[in-house]
Amino acid sequence: MAKRAKLDDFRVPFFDGGKGAKALSLADFDPSSKPFSAGSKQADRERLTAYAARLDEMQERLHAQRRERVLLVLQGMDTSGKDGTIRAVFHEVDPLGLRIATFRVPSPDEAAHDFLWRVHRQAPAAGELTIFNRSHYEDVLVPRVRGELTSAEIERRYAHIRHFETLLADSGTAVIKCFLHISKDEQRERLQARIDDETKHWKFDLADLEARRQWDDYQAAYAGALAATSTEHAPWYVIPADSKSHRNLMVAALLLRVFEGLDLEYPPAKESLKGLSIT
Amino acid sequence: MAKRAKLDDFRVPFFDGGKGAKALSLADFDPSSKPFSAGSKQADRERLTAYAARLDEMQERLHAQRRERVLLVLQGMDTSGKDGTIRAVFHEVDPLGLRIATFRVPSPDEAAHDFLWRVHRQAPAAGELTIFNRSHYEDVLVPRVRGELTSAEIERRYAHIRHFETLLADSGTAVIKCFLHISKDEQRERLQARIDDETKHWKFDLADLEARRQWDDYQAAYAGALAATSTEHAPWYVIPADSKSHRNLMVAALLLRVFEGLDLEYPPAKESLKGLSIT
């Protein structure tokens, strides 16, 4: 009988200070697998609907309690489905309860600061659920692939990231990081679909293909970054993401588990309001 | 045969420089009326679903074109349904395409600037749809009711608001402002419901009742502000809001009309992508 998949099987081993752990290889994770599928796309969708409603309730409690903070970091290659995940997983969450920070190429003002400056400003406040759509991880991935930083500089950035995320965690922020893992074939199909539909051309730039040509370099850069920054208080998960419905379900399940670990309760009733009659 | 209601019947007459127009009275608008109802709550909901899907499409075009900007300002007494409107009307809009700015009591840093400073920072960028959940209008309503500003000072603030909104409009921002108009009786019921449900106490503060005691003063302050700041490029609409389903439907209809006036098209296909085959 097949062993039932557990979410933690997809958690990147925690960084151990570089003491001889075997290097992480993303090839060990099959992007087309669907370990948390409910059995069919339709069943996945139904389960996601249930999860989404539960997330909505959890977010309301988070907001009501105004104590904990939750940060979801989404990373992945082009077309891996960061935008689609946000839309699908948070469809039922009150838009007032969700803040999405999208990190693009830094502006001159942002680039004039350290690489965590613009990110820190977007950290969730008490009672907030924040999603990072791309993040500070771009600043270790891109310069590594382009050879703009030495490996010693990259290592220092990994350390800065670990310290920064420890600060967030120490201040009551639950941090969860998801790498949306797609295959190169699946990316080809998705890019081709955008090209074949002319109304989607605005989403597409020929420069986007540059990263595809450097596919293997990016996979190695991701493996290095994930291994160096997966920690107990800010773990990385590899999400098999060739199947959109599976991807959504797994991200929702992970996030729900985080929420359920927070002991979120509505604040107690106020004595001053009990029995009050409005006139 | 009854005259069919038009959206513009609920538009506050444009400010004419104070040249003897008769004063606006909110009592002329019945909060419990449902002029744009589809006939029943159920029919309202179905129509709203259709509107919401259309808004989603419009928002995508707005984003794709990255030229126009849309700003919806929501104001109203406590429990008038600002939060509920946002949730219901924008349920189908991609959370990535929506930015909500909630204005609370100013922080010390905010209060150390002019009253439009924090608001200007939240103005929509090209391609953005932004909702102001409360707004700079609080800064003419509250000080007027509390007697903290002279009427000359209030008039100067009205002028500042008109100039500011003209700047936004001149820069390509479609501004639409909705006053969610509820009756004092309806507010009583909604407040009482919050008190009777102890899990809702966190939403409630005894100080909230202060504004209710000053109901008539606030109605007068709203009437004054709406009359002084309804302009062709930033009109105010009075939304009968005792019925939630009617309120949602009317706000959605107004916003759709704004979007449809913008001539939003997807950017043209890119020659460089035509016939391209991804490898």
Defining traits:
279 residues; alpha/beta; 10 helices
Describe this structure in words.
2 copies of one chain form a homodimer. With 279 residues, the first copy, chain A, is an alpha/beta fold. Chain A contains 10 helices and 5 strands, in the order H-E-H-E-H-H-E-H-H-E-H-H-H-E-H. Chain A has helices spanning 41-65, 82-89, 108-111, 117-120, 138-145, 151-170, 184-196, 208-213, 215-229, 244-260, and strands spanning 69-76, 98-102, 129-133, 173-181, 236-240. The longest helix of chain A has 25 residues, at 41-65. The mean pLDDT of chain A is 94. At the A-B interface, helix 2, strand 2 and helix 7 of A face helix 2, strand 2 and helix 7 of B.
Beta-strand segment tally of chain A: 5
CATH level-3 fold name of chain A: Rossmann fold
> In terms of quaternary structure, what is this?
homodimer
Order the strands across the largest sheet of chain A as they lie in space: 2-3-1-4-5
Secondary structure elements and pairings:
2 copies of one chain form a homodimer.
Chain A: H1 41-65, E1 69-76, H2 82-89, E2 98-102, H3 108-111, H4 117-120, E3 129-133, H5 138-145, H6 151-170, E4 173-181, H7 184-196, H8 208-213, H9 215-229, E5 236-240, H10 244-260
Parallel strand pairs in A: 1-3, 1-4, 2-3, 4-5
Helix pairs in contact in A: 1-10, 2-10, 5-6, 5-9
